[in-house]
C-alpha cells in the first residue's frame, strides 16, 4: 500500500491532498535462509508462497544459485495453494569451496502471473583469517621451505622475501600489522610504524602523508591536559608506558623529517619531564622513567640530574638486578648522548639478550610491554642508534633466535613495531653484502618455476598450487635471510584441542541455566566463555574473537501450511579463536 501526498503552496493559501494505491502481485514469497554457512555445509531453506488470488492455483517454485552454493536434489517444486493461504516448499543446499557472497534467486510461476525474489548469504570458513610468518636465515648453498597451510584461494596471500639483510623480515611484520584489527593507542601507533620507518624522506615530509596524518589525529584526540595519552580515549589517568611510547613515536617522526604538530610535541615533552622527575617505585616504573629520561636527552634537554637520581635509586633498591634489565640500556644510551662513552659501553655490555636465554614459561608474569622480543628489539635499536660499532659483536645466534621467535608466533603489535625499527637501524649499521640469490617454486605436479627476485629487499608472490620454495645462493660465506608469509583462511580447522598457555571453553545455556542443543527463532540464550591460564600466573590484554556463525549447522524446518515456521539450529564444538598475536 503506497501513500501518495501532495502539498501546494501559494503566498496566500496551502492545500493538502492524500490518496493511496494498493499494489500487489499474485504471489508473495518469503524465504527463510541463514546469514552465513561454511564450505561443505548442507542446510535447508524454506520458502513460503502466499497466494493473493481468488481461486486455488498451481505454482511452480524454482531456486537458482550463484557458484558459492549448489542445490542438492530438485531445483523446482510444484505447489497447490488455496486462495489467501500459504504454501511452503523446502530446498536442500550445500555450500561450495567458493568463499564470499552467494546469491539465491527464487522464481514463482503460475498461469496468473510470476514473482521473483533474490537473497544473499555469506559463505565463510569455520576458521579465522590468520597471518603466519616464517622467518630465518640459512648458510647452505640451497634451502627449501615446505608449504605448511592449506588455504582457500579467496583472500589468500603467500609472499616470499629474501635478502642478505634481516630487513627482509620487515615485510612479513608489516603485512601482519596491516591486518591488525584492534585500536588502542599503542596498537594504532604500531600499525603506523612501518610507514614511518620505510617511507621515503619526500613522503614523510608531506603534511598529508596518510599513515602519519591519521596517527597524529588519533594522538591529538587522546592526549590529556598533562600531555599523556589515554589507551582508548582522553583520560585523566593514563598508562605511562603507552604515553612514553607515543612520545617515542613523535620523536622518531620528527627526527626522520615528518612535520609533527607542535602542540603534540610540546605537551608530550612536558609529560616526559613529569615522568623523568616524578616518583617511581618498582622496576617497571623505573624502567619507564629511564626511557623518558633517554627520550628527553635525545631532544637536547639536559638530564644529568634525573639520570643521577635514577641510578642512585636503582643502586639502593635493585642493586642485584637492574644492570641486567632494559633500564640499564636506556641509561647507557643516555650516558652516550651526554658524552660519557666509557661508562655507557660498560653499562650496556651487561644487558643480556633474552631470546637467547628465555625465561621458563611457568615462571613470572609477562609485563604488558616488556616480553623477550620487546626487550631485544629495544636493545638492538639502542645499539644501532648509539653504539653502531658494537653491532659486530652481537652473538651469532641472536638473529636466528629472533627468526625462530617470529616463526613460532611469539610477536604482537608492539614487538612487531619495535622489531621493524630495530632491523632498520641494524641494517644501517652493518656493511652491505653482495651476492646472488635465486629462487624457484616447486608445484604440486612436480614441476618447478623460477621466481623473479628484483629490487631492494625483493618480495614475490607464490602461486596457489605450490608445494615448496627452493632458495640458492652463490656466496658460501654470506647468510641469506628469508621470510615467507602465508595469510588467509585455512581449509580445515584444528583436528583436536589446542593448548598454548590458555584454555577456552564455550557453553550454550537457556533461560533456566541448563545446556542447550537447539534453539528456535526468537528465543534468547546465553553463550558463556570460560578462560583459564595454564602456564603463567597472569595473562593480560587478551583479545578473544568468537566465531559463533562458524559453529551452528542450520536446518530450516516448516511446521505446516500456515505462516508459522521455526528455525532449528544444532550446535557443534568449534572452539573460539584466541588471537595470540595481540599485545
Give an overview of the whole structure.
The protein is an alpha+beta fold and 583 residues long. 28% of the residues lie in helices and 30% in strands. It is built from 13 helices and 25 strands. The chain has helices at 169-178, 185-198, 201-204, 210-222, 240-255, 262-277, 282-298, 304-317, 326-337, 341-348, 372-386, 398-407, 413-429; strands spanning 2-9, 14-21, 27-32, 36-37, 42-51, 57-65, 69-72, 76-81, 86-95, 100-110, 113-123, 129-138, 142-146, 157-163, 437-443, 448-451, 459-461, 466-473, 480-489, 502-509, 526-533, 543-545, 553-558, 565-570, 577-579. It has a five-stranded mixed beta sheet with strand order 4-11-10-6-8, with no helix packed on it. A four-stranded antiparallel beta sheet has the order 3-5-9-7, with no helix packed on it. A hairpin with a 2-residue loop joins strand 10 (100-110) and strand 11 (113-123). Helix 2 (185-198) runs parallel beside helix 5. The longest helix is centred in the middle third of the chain and has 17 residues, at 282-298. The protein is globular and about 100 Å long. The protein starts with a strand and ends with a strand. The model is unreliable at 361-366 and 549-583 (pLDDT under 50).
